[in-house]
Amino acid sequence: MRLDLSGVSVRLDGRPIVHEADLVVDDGEFVALVGPNGCGKSTLMRTIYRALRPSAGLITVDGDDVHRLSWRESARRTAVVAQETPAELDFTVGEVVLMGRTPYERAAAADEERCARALDRVGLGGGEERGYATLSGGEKQRALIARALVQETRLLLLDEPTSHLDIRHQLEILHLVRELGVATLAVLHDLNQAAAFCDRLYVMSAGRVLAGGPPEQVLTPELISQVYGVRAVRRTQLVFERLAL
Amino acid sequence: MTGDTLAPAARLASTTPSGRRRRRYILLVAALAVAVVASTWLAVSIGAVHVALPQAWAIVADHLAPGVVARTWTPVQEQIVWEYRLPRALLALLVGAGLSVVGAVLQALVRNPLADPFLLGISSGASCGAVLVLVLGYSTLGGLSLSGAAFAGSLLALGLVYVLAQRAGRITPSRLVLAGVALAYLFQSLYSFVLQQAQSGRAAQQVLFWLMGSLGGARWEMLPLPSAVLAAGLVYLLLQHRQLNALTAGEETAVSLGVNVHRLRLTLFVLTSLLVGVLVATSGAIAFVGLIVPHAARLLVGADHRRVLPVTALLGAAFLQLVDVAARTVNAPQELALSIVTALFGVPFFLWLLRRRSVDRAVTVG
Protein backbone atom coordinates (compact mmCIF):
# COMPACT_ATOMS: atom_id res chain seq x y z
CA MET A 1 0.00 0.00 0.00
CA ARG A 2 1.25 3.43 -0.84
CA LEU A 3 -0.52 6.75 -1.06
CA ASP A 4 1.27 9.13 -3.35
CA LEU A 5 0.36 12.74 -4.07
CA SER A 6 2.34 14.63 -6.66
CA GLY A 7 1.74 18.24 -7.60
CA VAL A 8 -1.85 18.23 -6.33
CA SER A 9 -3.65 21.57 -6.61
CA VAL A 10 -7.24 22.13 -5.55
CA ARG A 11 -9.55 25.04 -6.25
CA LEU A 12 -12.82 25.79 -4.48
CA ASP A 13 -15.16 28.08 -6.41
CA GLY A 14 -12.23 29.11 -8.54
CA ARG A 15 -10.05 30.10 -5.58
CA PRO A 16 -6.80 28.14 -5.21
CA ILE A 17 -6.81 26.40 -1.82
CA VAL A 18 -4.07 23.81 -2.21
CA HIS A 19 -1.04 24.44 -4.35
CA GLU A 20 1.13 21.66 -5.81
CA ALA A 21 1.15 19.41 -2.77
CA ASP A 22 3.48 16.40 -2.67
CA LEU A 23 2.97 13.79 0.00
CA VAL A 24 3.62 10.08 0.52
CA VAL A 25 2.28 7.53 2.99
CA ASP A 26 3.93 4.10 2.91
CA ASP A 27 2.57 0.78 4.09
CA GLY A 28 1.97 0.68 7.85
CA GLU A 29 3.08 4.27 8.38
CA PHE A 30 1.27 6.75 10.61
CA VAL A 31 1.71 10.14 8.96
CA ALA A 32 0.39 13.38 10.42
CA LEU A 33 -0.64 16.49 8.52
CA VAL A 34 -0.46 19.67 10.57
CA GLY A 35 -0.85 23.37 9.89
CA PRO A 36 -2.80 26.43 10.99
CA ASN A 37 -6.54 26.82 10.40
CA GLY A 38 -7.39 27.47 6.78
CA CYS A 39 -4.07 26.18 5.44
CA GLY A 40 -5.82 23.66 3.20
CA LYS A 41 -5.31 20.43 5.20
CA SER A 42 -8.95 19.38 5.17
CA THR A 43 -9.36 20.37 1.53
CA LEU A 44 -6.41 18.18 0.65
CA MET A 45 -7.87 15.28 2.66
CA ARG A 46 -11.27 15.68 0.99
CA THR A 47 -9.56 15.55 -2.37
CA ILE A 48 -7.86 12.28 -1.45
CA TYR A 49 -11.19 10.67 -0.56
CA ARG A 50 -12.87 12.17 -3.63
CA ALA A 51 -15.26 14.62 -2.06
CA LEU A 52 -13.39 17.14 -4.24
CA ARG A 53 -11.51 16.86 -7.52
CA PRO A 54 -7.99 18.19 -7.91
CA SER A 55 -7.50 20.90 -10.53
CA ALA A 56 -4.02 19.58 -11.23
CA GLY A 57 -1.71 16.80 -10.09
CA LEU A 58 -2.07 13.12 -9.42
CA ILE A 59 -3.25 11.12 -6.39
CA THR A 60 -2.50 7.42 -6.51
CA VAL A 61 -3.30 4.60 -4.11
CA ASP A 62 -1.44 1.40 -4.93
CA GLY A 63 -0.32 2.97 -8.16
CA ASP A 64 -3.80 3.77 -9.51
CA ASP A 65 -5.16 7.26 -10.05
CA VAL A 66 -7.82 7.49 -7.32
CA HIS A 67 -10.04 9.78 -9.34
CA ARG A 68 -10.19 7.29 -12.20
CA LEU A 69 -11.18 4.30 -10.07
CA SER A 70 -14.82 3.33 -9.70
CA TRP A 71 -16.40 4.82 -6.58
CA ARG A 72 -16.66 1.38 -5.03
CA GLU A 73 -13.08 0.48 -5.76
CA SER A 74 -11.68 3.65 -4.22
CA ALA A 75 -13.83 3.04 -1.12
CA ARG A 76 -12.34 -0.45 -0.91
CA ARG A 77 -8.88 1.09 -0.73
CA THR A 78 -9.43 4.14 1.46
CA ALA A 79 -11.55 4.56 4.59
CA VAL A 80 -12.29 7.90 6.24
CA VAL A 81 -13.01 9.01 9.77
CA ALA A 82 -13.95 12.69 9.66
CA GLN A 83 -15.32 15.19 12.13
CA GLU A 84 -18.66 15.09 10.41
CA THR A 85 -20.82 12.61 12.27
CA PRO A 86 -24.05 11.25 10.86
CA ALA A 87 -27.11 13.38 11.45
CA GLU A 88 -28.99 12.61 14.62
CA LEU A 89 -31.03 9.86 13.09
CA ASP A 90 -32.10 6.72 14.83
CA PHE A 91 -29.39 4.45 13.47
CA THR A 92 -28.06 1.85 15.87
CA VAL A 93 -24.32 1.48 16.38
CA GLY A 94 -24.48 -1.80 14.45
CA GLU A 95 -26.15 -0.08 11.49
CA VAL A 96 -23.56 2.71 11.47
CA VAL A 97 -20.69 0.19 11.52
CA LEU A 98 -22.34 -1.94 8.82
CA MET A 99 -22.30 1.10 6.53
CA GLY A 100 -18.62 0.31 6.15
CA ARG A 101 -19.67 -2.66 4.00
CA THR A 102 -21.43 -0.44 1.47
CA PRO A 103 -18.69 -0.84 -1.18
CA TYR A 104 -18.95 -4.66 -0.98
CA GLU A 105 -21.58 -7.20 -1.92
CA ARG A 106 -23.95 -7.91 0.91
CA ALA A 107 -23.23 -10.95 3.07
CA ALA A 108 -25.49 -10.65 6.08
CA ALA A 109 -23.98 -13.22 8.46
CA ALA A 110 -20.33 -12.53 7.62
CA ASP A 111 -20.92 -8.78 7.83
CA GLU A 112 -22.45 -9.06 11.29
CA GLU A 113 -19.46 -11.09 12.37
CA ARG A 114 -17.08 -8.43 11.00
CA CYS A 115 -19.10 -5.74 12.71
CA ALA A 116 -18.92 -7.57 16.06
CA ARG A 117 -15.16 -8.03 15.74
CA ALA A 118 -14.59 -4.39 14.81
CA LEU A 119 -16.65 -3.21 17.77
CA ASP A 120 -14.60 -5.48 20.03
CA ARG A 121 -11.42 -3.94 18.74
CA VAL A 122 -12.52 -0.39 19.46
CA GLY A 123 -13.83 -1.32 22.90
CA LEU A 124 -17.53 -1.15 22.10
CA GLY A 125 -18.03 -4.92 22.01
CA GLY A 126 -21.66 -6.02 22.14
CA GLY A 127 -22.90 -2.47 21.60
CA GLU A 128 -24.59 -3.13 18.23
CA GLU A 129 -28.08 -2.35 19.42
CA ARG A 130 -27.27 0.89 21.21
CA GLY A 131 -28.56 4.04 19.57
CA TYR A 132 -25.71 5.88 17.85
CA ALA A 133 -27.15 9.22 18.96
CA THR A 134 -26.94 8.15 22.61
CA LEU A 135 -23.18 7.56 22.50
CA SER A 136 -20.67 9.99 23.99
CA GLY A 137 -18.35 11.89 21.64
CA GLY A 138 -15.49 9.46 22.21
CA GLU A 139 -17.73 6.44 21.69
CA LYS A 140 -19.12 7.91 18.47
CA GLN A 141 -15.61 8.42 17.15
CA ARG A 142 -14.73 4.84 18.07
CA ALA A 143 -17.85 3.55 16.33
CA LEU A 144 -16.75 5.45 13.21
CA ILE A 145 -13.32 3.83 13.47
CA ALA A 146 -15.08 0.46 13.67
CA ARG A 147 -16.95 1.45 10.50
CA ALA A 148 -13.63 2.18 8.81
CA LEU A 149 -12.31 -1.19 10.04
CA VAL A 150 -15.09 -3.24 8.43
CA GLN A 151 -14.39 -1.34 5.22
CA GLU A 152 -11.19 -3.44 5.20
CA THR A 153 -9.00 -0.86 3.53
CA ARG A 154 -5.26 -0.61 3.81
CA LEU A 155 -5.31 3.17 4.02
CA LEU A 156 -7.09 5.17 6.69
CA LEU A 157 -7.67 8.92 6.53
CA LEU A 158 -8.40 10.77 9.75
CA ASP A 159 -9.60 14.36 9.47
CA GLU A 160 -9.21 15.88 12.93
CA PRO A 161 -10.53 12.72 14.54
CA THR A 162 -10.05 14.03 18.05
CA SER A 163 -11.17 17.64 17.82
CA HIS A 164 -14.33 17.27 19.93
CA LEU A 165 -12.75 15.03 22.52
CA ASP A 166 -11.13 15.64 25.86
CA ILE A 167 -7.46 14.88 26.26
CA ARG A 168 -7.93 11.38 27.60
CA HIS A 169 -10.20 10.31 24.77
CA GLN A 170 -7.93 11.97 22.22
CA LEU A 171 -5.05 9.82 23.42
CA GLU A 172 -7.24 6.73 23.47
CA ILE A 173 -8.30 7.22 19.87
CA LEU A 174 -4.78 7.87 18.65
CA HIS A 175 -3.42 4.81 20.48
CA LEU A 176 -6.22 2.75 19.02
CA VAL A 177 -5.46 3.87 15.46
CA ARG A 178 -1.72 3.35 15.93
CA GLU A 179 -2.25 -0.18 17.14
CA LEU A 180 -4.34 -1.03 14.06
CA GLY A 181 -1.16 -1.00 11.97
CA VAL A 182 -3.04 0.37 8.96
CA ALA A 183 -1.32 3.04 6.89
CA THR A 184 -2.79 6.27 8.23
CA LEU A 185 -2.79 9.89 7.20
CA ALA A 186 -4.19 12.04 10.01
CA VAL A 187 -4.91 15.74 10.22
CA LEU A 188 -4.05 16.68 13.79
CA HIS A 189 -4.30 19.99 15.57
CA ASP A 190 -2.08 19.35 18.52
CA LEU A 191 1.60 19.46 17.54
CA ASN A 192 2.69 17.63 20.68
CA GLN A 193 0.31 14.81 19.87
CA ALA A 194 1.36 14.73 16.26
CA ALA A 195 5.00 14.55 17.30
CA ALA A 196 4.30 11.78 19.79
CA PHE A 197 2.21 9.54 17.55
CA CYS A 198 3.41 9.85 13.99
CA ASP A 199 6.28 8.24 12.13
CA ARG A 200 6.52 11.25 9.87
CA LEU A 201 4.63 14.47 9.50
CA TYR A 202 3.94 17.14 6.91
CA VAL A 203 3.45 20.81 7.67
CA MET A 204 1.11 22.85 5.50
CA SER A 205 0.83 26.59 5.34
CA ALA A 206 -1.16 28.79 2.97
CA GLY A 207 -2.02 25.88 0.68
CA ARG A 208 1.51 24.54 0.36
CA VAL A 209 3.25 21.56 1.92
CA LEU A 210 6.28 23.26 3.43
CA ALA A 211 8.14 20.37 4.98
CA GLY A 212 7.92 16.65 5.57
CA GLY A 213 9.86 14.14 7.59
CA PRO A 214 10.35 12.79 11.10
CA PRO A 215 8.80 15.18 13.65
CA GLU A 216 12.04 16.00 15.45
CA GLN A 217 13.55 17.18 12.17
CA VAL A 218 10.53 19.03 10.86
CA LEU A 219 9.11 20.73 13.93
CA THR A 220 11.89 23.23 14.46
CA PRO A 221 11.15 26.40 16.43
CA GLU A 222 11.96 28.36 13.25
CA LEU A 223 9.39 26.52 11.13
CA ILE A 224 6.72 26.74 13.82
CA SER A 225 7.19 30.45 14.24
CA GLN A 226 7.10 30.88 10.47
CA VAL A 227 3.93 28.81 10.06
CA TYR A 228 1.93 29.56 13.19
CA GLY A 229 3.43 32.88 14.22
CA VAL A 230 4.12 31.62 17.74
CA ARG A 231 7.33 31.03 19.62
CA ALA A 232 7.93 27.36 20.36
CA VAL A 233 10.16 25.96 23.07
CA ARG A 234 11.35 22.43 22.62
CA ARG A 235 11.29 20.21 25.67
CA THR A 236 12.65 16.73 25.58
CA GLN A 237 9.86 15.05 27.52
CA LEU A 238 6.46 14.11 26.07
CA VAL A 239 3.90 16.11 28.05
CA PHE A 240 0.96 13.69 28.18
CA GLU A 241 1.23 10.01 28.82
CA ARG A 242 -1.85 7.84 28.70
CA LEU A 243 -2.71 6.43 32.11
CA ALA A 244 -2.92 2.70 32.30
CA LEU A 245 -6.54 2.17 33.34
CA MET B 1 -11.79 1.59 29.77
CA THR B 2 -14.96 3.41 28.97
CA GLY B 3 -17.85 1.81 27.15
CA ASP B 4 -19.47 -1.46 28.04
CA THR B 5 -16.86 -3.92 26.96
CA LEU B 6 -18.26 -7.40 27.22
CA ALA B 7 -16.45 -10.66 27.76
CA PRO B 8 -16.67 -13.15 24.86
CA ALA B 9 -19.15 -15.26 26.84
CA ALA B 10 -21.51 -12.32 27.11
CA ARG B 11 -21.24 -11.80 23.37
CA LEU B 12 -23.59 -14.69 22.64
CA ALA B 13 -26.25 -13.17 24.82
CA SER B 14 -25.73 -9.82 23.15
CA THR B 15 -26.96 -11.18 19.82
CA THR B 16 -30.42 -11.69 21.31
CA PRO B 17 -31.47 -8.02 21.13
CA SER B 18 -30.81 -7.96 17.38
CA GLY B 19 -32.73 -11.22 17.00
CA ARG B 20 -35.57 -9.78 19.04
CA ARG B 21 -35.57 -6.71 16.85
CA ARG B 22 -35.77 -8.86 13.71
CA ARG B 23 -38.72 -10.81 15.10
CA ARG B 24 -40.44 -7.58 16.08
CA TYR B 25 -39.92 -6.24 12.56
CA ILE B 26 -41.41 -9.33 10.92
CA LEU B 27 -44.40 -9.18 13.26
CA LEU B 28 -44.84 -5.50 12.47
CA VAL B 29 -44.79 -6.08 8.72
CA ALA B 30 -47.30 -8.92 9.09
CA ALA B 31 -49.57 -6.74 11.23
CA LEU B 32 -49.39 -3.89 8.72
CA ALA B 33 -50.17 -6.25 5.85
CA VAL B 34 -53.26 -7.40 7.75
CA ALA B 35 -54.19 -3.76 8.36
CA VAL B 36 -53.89 -3.00 4.65
CA VAL B 37 -56.20 -5.89 3.71
CA ALA B 38 -58.68 -5.18 6.52
CA SER B 39 -58.89 -1.45 5.78
CA THR B 40 -59.41 -2.17 2.09
CA TRP B 41 -62.14 -4.67 2.88
CA LEU B 42 -63.80 -2.10 5.10
CA ALA B 43 -63.49 0.57 2.39
CA VAL B 44 -65.19 -1.68 -0.15
CA SER B 45 -68.18 -2.47 2.05
CA ILE B 46 -68.81 0.94 3.67
CA GLY B 47 -70.76 3.69 1.91
CA ALA B 48 -74.16 5.02 0.93
CA VAL B 49 -75.18 1.62 -0.42
CA HIS B 50 -74.36 -0.81 2.32
CA VAL B 51 -72.68 -4.06 1.35
CA ALA B 52 -72.05 -6.53 4.17
CA LEU B 53 -68.41 -7.50 4.70
CA PRO B 54 -68.80 -11.16 3.58
CA GLN B 55 -70.79 -10.03 0.56
CA ALA B 56 -68.15 -7.50 -0.49
CA TRP B 57 -65.59 -10.27 -0.26
CA ALA B 58 -67.79 -12.61 -2.29
CA ILE B 59 -68.30 -10.04 -5.06
CA VAL B 60 -64.54 -9.57 -5.41
CA ALA B 61 -63.97 -13.34 -5.32
CA ASP B 62 -66.63 -13.83 -7.98
CA HIS B 63 -64.81 -11.45 -10.30
CA LEU B 64 -61.47 -13.11 -9.72
CA ALA B 65 -62.80 -16.66 -10.09
CA PRO B 66 -66.28 -16.58 -11.65
CA GLY B 67 -68.80 -19.18 -10.49
CA VAL B 68 -66.97 -20.24 -7.32
CA VAL B 69 -69.23 -18.33 -4.92
CA ALA B 70 -73.03 -18.44 -4.87
CA ARG B 71 -74.51 -15.08 -5.96
CA THR B 72 -76.32 -13.43 -3.04
CA TRP B 73 -76.00 -9.79 -4.10
CA THR B 74 -77.87 -7.37 -6.32
CA PRO B 75 -76.42 -6.10 -9.62
CA VAL B 76 -76.35 -2.60 -8.10
CA GLN B 77 -74.20 -3.78 -5.22
CA GLU B 78 -71.94 -5.56 -7.62
CA GLN B 79 -71.54 -2.50 -9.80
CA ILE B 80 -70.80 -0.26 -6.84
CA VAL B 81 -68.25 -2.60 -5.31
CA TRP B 82 -66.48 -3.64 -8.49
CA GLU B 83 -66.62 -0.52 -10.60
CA TYR B 84 -66.34 2.23 -8.00
CA ARG B 85 -65.25 1.15 -4.54
CA LEU B 86 -62.58 -1.42 -5.34
CA PRO B 87 -60.61 0.70 -7.84
CA ARG B 88 -60.94 3.63 -5.46
CA ALA B 89 -59.69 1.53 -2.53
CA LEU B 90 -56.77 0.19 -4.57
CA LEU B 91 -55.90 3.70 -5.71
CA ALA B 92 -55.95 4.82 -2.07
CA LEU B 93 -53.38 2.12 -1.26
CA LEU B 94 -51.18 3.14 -4.18
CA VAL B 95 -51.33 6.86 -3.46
CA GLY B 96 -50.83 6.38 0.28
CA ALA B 97 -47.87 4.07 -0.20
CA GLY B 98 -46.40 6.15 -3.01
CA LEU B 99 -46.56 9.56 -1.34
CA SER B 100 -45.17 8.11 1.89
CA VAL B 101 -42.24 6.40 0.18
CA VAL B 102 -41.48 9.59 -1.75
CA GLY B 103 -41.48 11.48 1.55
CA ALA B 104 -39.05 9.01 3.11
CA VAL B 105 -36.71 9.23 0.12
CA LEU B 106 -36.81 13.02 -0.05
CA GLN B 107 -36.06 13.30 3.65
CA ALA B 108 -32.89 11.31 2.95
CA LEU B 109 -32.16 13.10 -0.33
CA VAL B 110 -32.24 16.65 1.01
CA ARG B 111 -31.33 15.58 4.56
CA ASN B 112 -34.18 17.48 6.06
CA PRO B 113 -36.87 15.87 8.20
CA LEU B 114 -39.41 18.42 7.00
CA ALA B 115 -39.14 17.35 3.36
CA ASP B 116 -42.34 16.05 1.79
CA PRO B 117 -43.48 15.14 -1.74
CA PHE B 118 -44.63 18.69 -2.44
CA LEU B 119 -41.33 20.28 -1.56
CA LEU B 120 -39.87 20.18 -5.04
CA GLY B 121 -42.64 22.07 -6.79
CA ILE B 122 -43.72 19.00 -8.75
CA SER B 123 -47.22 18.93 -7.33
CA SER B 124 -47.74 22.63 -8.01
CA GLY B 125 -46.80 21.97 -11.62
CA ALA B 126 -49.29 19.12 -11.74
CA SER B 127 -51.98 21.26 -10.14
CA CYS B 128 -51.29 23.99 -12.65
CA GLY B 129 -51.85 21.60 -15.54
CA ALA B 130 -55.05 20.31 -14.00
CA VAL B 131 -56.40 23.80 -13.35
CA LEU B 132 -55.78 24.82 -16.94
CA VAL B 133 -57.77 21.83 -18.20
CA LEU B 134 -60.62 22.30 -15.76
CA VAL B 135 -61.00 26.02 -16.34
CA LEU B 136 -60.20 26.35 -20.04
CA GLY B 137 -61.94 23.12 -21.00
CA TYR B 138 -60.54 19.96 -22.51
CA SER B 139 -60.71 21.10 -26.11
CA THR B 140 -58.49 24.16 -25.60
CA LEU B 141 -55.54 21.99 -24.64
CA GLY B 142 -55.82 19.53 -27.48
CA GLY B 143 -58.04 17.02 -25.70
CA LEU B 144 -55.71 16.41 -22.76
CA SER B 145 -57.44 14.66 -19.89
CA LEU B 146 -57.24 16.03 -16.37
CA SER B 147 -54.63 13.51 -15.30
CA GLY B 148 -52.79 13.90 -18.58
CA ALA B 149 -52.54 17.64 -18.07
CA ALA B 150 -51.51 17.18 -14.44
CA PHE B 151 -48.80 14.78 -15.48
CA ALA B 152 -47.59 17.14 -18.21
CA GLY B 153 -47.47 19.92 -15.61
CA SER B 154 -45.44 17.81 -13.23
CA LEU B 155 -42.97 16.89 -15.97
CA LEU B 156 -42.56 20.54 -16.88
CA ALA B 157 -41.91 21.39 -13.23
CA LEU B 158 -39.49 18.48 -12.96
CA GLY B 159 -37.51 19.72 -15.93
CA LEU B 160 -37.39 23.28 -14.62
CA VAL B 161 -36.34 22.27 -11.10
CA TYR B 162 -33.69 20.00 -12.55
CA VAL B 163 -32.20 22.75 -14.69
CA LEU B 164 -32.33 25.29 -11.85
CA ALA B 165 -30.94 22.94 -9.20
CA GLN B 166 -27.89 22.10 -11.26
CA ARG B 167 -24.55 23.73 -11.02
CA ALA B 168 -21.66 22.38 -13.03
CA GLY B 169 -23.58 19.15 -13.55
CA ARG B 170 -24.17 18.60 -9.83
CA ILE B 171 -27.38 18.72 -7.87
CA THR B 172 -27.05 20.01 -4.33
CA PRO B 173 -29.81 19.62 -1.72
CA SER B 174 -30.01 23.32 -0.90
CA ARG B 175 -30.39 24.30 -4.56
CA LEU B 176 -32.97 21.57 -5.05
CA VAL B 177 -35.09 22.88 -2.20
CA LEU B 178 -34.74 26.54 -3.18
CA ALA B 179 -35.54 25.88 -6.83
CA GLY B 180 -38.51 23.68 -5.83
CA VAL B 181 -39.97 26.18 -3.39
CA ALA B 182 -39.54 29.08 -5.80
CA LEU B 183 -41.21 27.17 -8.64
CA ALA B 184 -44.03 26.09 -6.35
CA TYR B 185 -44.84 29.74 -5.67
CA LEU B 186 -44.66 30.55 -9.36
CA PHE B 187 -47.05 27.75 -10.31
CA GLN B 188 -49.38 28.62 -7.45
CA SER B 189 -49.66 32.22 -8.54
CA LEU B 190 -50.22 31.02 -12.09
CA TYR B 191 -53.14 28.76 -11.28
CA SER B 192 -54.57 31.20 -8.76
CA PHE B 193 -54.65 33.75 -11.57
CA VAL B 194 -56.39 31.32 -13.90
CA LEU B 195 -58.87 30.43 -11.18
CA GLN B 196 -59.61 34.08 -10.48
CA GLN B 197 -60.26 34.70 -14.15
CA ALA B 198 -62.49 31.65 -14.44
CA GLN B 199 -66.04 32.49 -15.46
CA SER B 200 -67.77 29.44 -14.11
CA GLY B 201 -68.03 29.07 -10.33
CA ARG B 202 -68.58 25.37 -10.75
CA ALA B 203 -65.25 24.84 -12.46
CA ALA B 204 -63.51 26.77 -9.67
CA GLN B 205 -65.28 24.62 -7.09
CA GLN B 206 -64.19 21.47 -8.87
CA VAL B 207 -60.60 22.69 -9.05
CA LEU B 208 -60.46 23.60 -5.38
CA PHE B 209 -61.75 20.16 -4.44
CA TRP B 210 -59.22 18.49 -6.70
CA LEU B 211 -56.38 20.63 -5.35
CA MET B 212 -57.05 19.32 -1.84
CA GLY B 213 -57.02 15.72 -2.90
CA SER B 214 -59.78 13.32 -3.85
CA LEU B 215 -59.91 9.72 -4.96
CA GLY B 216 -63.46 10.18 -6.25
CA GLY B 217 -62.40 9.85 -9.88
CA ALA B 218 -60.82 6.42 -9.46
CA ARG B 219 -61.42 3.96 -12.32
CA TRP B 220 -59.71 0.68 -13.13
CA GLU B 221 -57.87 2.14 -16.10
CA MET B 222 -56.15 4.67 -13.79
CA LEU B 223 -54.39 1.96 -11.80
CA PRO B 224 -51.77 0.35 -14.09
CA LEU B 225 -49.45 3.36 -14.51
CA PRO B 226 -49.10 4.31 -10.83
CA SER B 227 -48.80 0.61 -9.87
CA ALA B 228 -46.01 0.05 -12.36
CA VAL B 229 -44.08 3.19 -11.39
CA LEU B 230 -44.48 2.49 -7.67
CA ALA B 231 -43.46 -1.16 -7.99
CA ALA B 232 -40.40 -0.34 -10.09
CA GLY B 233 -39.49 2.51 -7.74
CA LEU B 234 -39.80 0.37 -4.62
CA VAL B 235 -37.66 -2.41 -6.07
CA TYR B 236 -34.97 0.09 -7.06
CA LEU B 237 -35.04 1.82 -3.67
CA LEU B 238 -34.83 -1.46 -1.76
CA LEU B 239 -31.84 -2.48 -3.86
CA GLN B 240 -30.25 0.87 -3.01
CA HIS B 241 -31.08 0.83 0.70
CA ARG B 242 -27.45 0.85 1.78
CA GLN B 243 -26.69 3.79 -0.50
CA LEU B 244 -29.69 5.60 0.96
CA ASN B 245 -28.42 4.95 4.48
CA ALA B 246 -24.98 6.25 3.55
CA LEU B 247 -26.53 9.37 2.01
CA THR B 248 -28.47 9.97 5.22
CA ALA B 249 -25.17 9.92 7.09
CA GLY B 250 -23.88 12.80 4.96
CA GLU B 251 -22.66 13.45 1.45
CA GLU B 252 -18.96 13.10 2.17
CA THR B 253 -19.52 10.00 4.25
CA ALA B 254 -21.46 8.50 1.36
CA VAL B 255 -18.63 9.35 -1.05
CA SER B 256 -16.06 7.76 1.24
CA LEU B 257 -18.25 4.64 1.39
CA GLY B 258 -18.13 4.28 -2.38
CA VAL B 259 -21.49 5.80 -3.29
CA ASN B 260 -21.70 7.72 -6.56
CA VAL B 261 -23.55 10.53 -4.82
CA HIS B 262 -24.29 12.66 -7.85
CA ARG B 263 -25.76 9.84 -9.86
CA LEU B 264 -27.75 8.59 -6.87
CA ARG B 265 -29.18 12.07 -6.22
CA LEU B 266 -30.14 12.49 -9.85
CA THR B 267 -31.83 9.09 -9.98
CA LEU B 268 -33.70 9.70 -6.74
CA PHE B 269 -34.82 13.13 -7.91
CA VAL B 270 -36.18 11.82 -11.22
CA LEU B 271 -37.78 8.78 -9.58
CA THR B 272 -39.55 10.73 -6.84
CA SER B 273 -40.70 13.41 -9.26
CA LEU B 274 -42.14 10.85 -11.64
CA LEU B 275 -43.95 9.12 -8.80
CA VAL B 276 -45.39 12.38 -7.48
CA GLY B 277 -46.45 13.39 -10.97
CA VAL B 278 -48.22 10.10 -11.63
CA LEU B 279 -49.92 10.08 -8.22
CA VAL B 280 -50.96 13.73 -8.13
CA ALA B 281 -52.41 13.28 -11.60
CA THR B 282 -54.81 10.64 -10.26
CA SER B 283 -55.70 12.06 -6.87
CA GLY B 284 -54.74 15.72 -6.57
CA ALA B 285 -52.45 17.08 -3.90
CA ILE B 286 -52.91 15.19 -0.64
CA ALA B 287 -51.02 16.94 2.11
CA PHE B 288 -49.20 15.58 5.16
CA VAL B 289 -49.16 11.87 4.22
CA GLY B 290 -45.64 12.03 2.82
CA LEU B 291 -44.46 14.08 5.77
CA ILE B 292 -45.78 12.12 8.74
CA VAL B 293 -45.84 8.49 7.62
CA PRO B 294 -42.03 8.14 7.17
CA HIS B 295 -41.48 9.65 10.61
CA ALA B 296 -43.95 7.23 12.14
CA ALA B 297 -42.17 4.38 10.35
CA ARG B 298 -38.80 5.49 11.74
CA LEU B 299 -40.24 5.65 15.23
CA LEU B 300 -41.26 2.02 14.79
CA VAL B 301 -38.16 0.52 13.13
CA GLY B 302 -35.30 3.04 13.31
CA ALA B 303 -33.49 4.69 10.43
CA ASP B 304 -32.31 1.74 8.30
CA HIS B 305 -34.00 2.09 4.90
CA ARG B 306 -34.17 -1.66 4.45
CA ARG B 307 -36.85 -1.58 7.13
CA VAL B 308 -38.10 1.97 6.78
CA LEU B 309 -39.19 1.62 3.14
CA PRO B 310 -41.48 -1.43 3.42
CA VAL B 311 -42.98 -0.20 6.68
CA THR B 312 -43.50 3.28 5.22
CA ALA B 313 -45.26 1.85 2.16
CA LEU B 314 -47.59 -0.41 4.16
CA LEU B 315 -48.30 2.19 6.82
CA GLY B 316 -49.01 4.87 4.21
CA ALA B 317 -51.33 2.54 2.29
CA ALA B 318 -53.39 1.59 5.33
CA PHE B 319 -53.42 5.17 6.62
CA LEU B 320 -54.72 6.71 3.40
CA GLN B 321 -57.30 3.94 3.05
CA LEU B 322 -58.74 4.83 6.46
CA VAL B 323 -58.49 8.53 5.68
CA ASP B 324 -60.50 7.99 2.50
CA VAL B 325 -63.11 5.95 4.36
CA ALA B 326 -63.42 8.79 6.86
CA ALA B 327 -63.59 11.37 4.07
CA ARG B 328 -66.48 9.49 2.45
CA THR B 329 -68.48 8.74 5.59
CA VAL B 330 -68.00 11.49 8.19
CA ASN B 331 -69.98 14.13 6.31
CA ALA B 332 -72.00 11.84 4.00
CA PRO B 333 -73.39 12.29 1.43
CA GLN B 334 -70.89 15.13 1.02
CA GLU B 335 -67.28 14.03 0.65
CA LEU B 336 -64.48 15.77 2.47
CA ALA B 337 -61.29 16.63 0.60
CA LEU B 338 -58.55 14.23 1.73
CA SER B 339 -56.18 16.98 2.82
CA ILE B 340 -58.72 18.10 5.40
CA VAL B 341 -58.71 14.67 7.01
CA THR B 342 -54.96 14.10 6.73
CA ALA B 343 -54.34 17.53 8.27
CA LEU B 344 -56.66 16.71 11.18
CA PHE B 345 -54.46 13.69 11.92
CA GLY B 346 -51.28 15.19 10.61
CA VAL B 347 -51.02 18.49 12.45
CA PRO B 348 -51.22 17.10 16.00
CA PHE B 349 -48.72 14.39 15.11
CA PHE B 350 -46.47 16.94 13.52
CA LEU B 351 -46.55 19.24 16.53
CA TRP B 352 -45.71 16.32 18.75
CA LEU B 353 -42.84 15.48 16.44
CA LEU B 354 -41.55 19.05 16.65
CA ARG B 355 -41.25 18.64 20.39
CA ARG B 356 -38.89 15.75 19.88
CA ARG B 357 -35.28 16.79 20.14
CA SER B 358 -34.04 14.98 17.05
CA VAL B 359 -36.02 17.09 14.57
CA ASP B 360 -34.76 20.28 16.12
CA ARG B 361 -31.18 19.22 15.86
CA ALA B 362 -31.45 17.79 12.38
CA VAL B 363 -32.97 21.03 11.09
CA THR B 364 -30.22 23.21 12.49
CA VAL B 365 -27.53 20.83 11.32
CA GLY B 366 -29.02 19.96 7.95
TrEMBL record, chain A:
Domain ABC transporter: residue ranges: 3-231
Listed GO MF terms: ATP binding; ATP hydrolysis activity
SMART domains: AAA (SM00382)
Gene3D superfamilies: P-loop containing nucleotide triphosphate hydrolases (3.40.50.300)
Residue ranges of coiled coil: none
UniProt superkingdom: Bacteria
Keywords: ATP-binding, Nucleotide-binding, Transport
InterPro entries attached to this UniProt entry: AAA+_ATPase, ABC_transporter-like_ATP-bd, ABC_transporter-like_CS, P-loop_NTPase
Pfam families (UniProt xref): ABC_tran
Protein name: Histidinol phosphatase
Biological source species: [Actinomadura] parvosata subsp. kistnae
Top-level taxonomy: Bacteria, Bacillati, Actinomycetota, Actinomycetes, Streptosporangiales
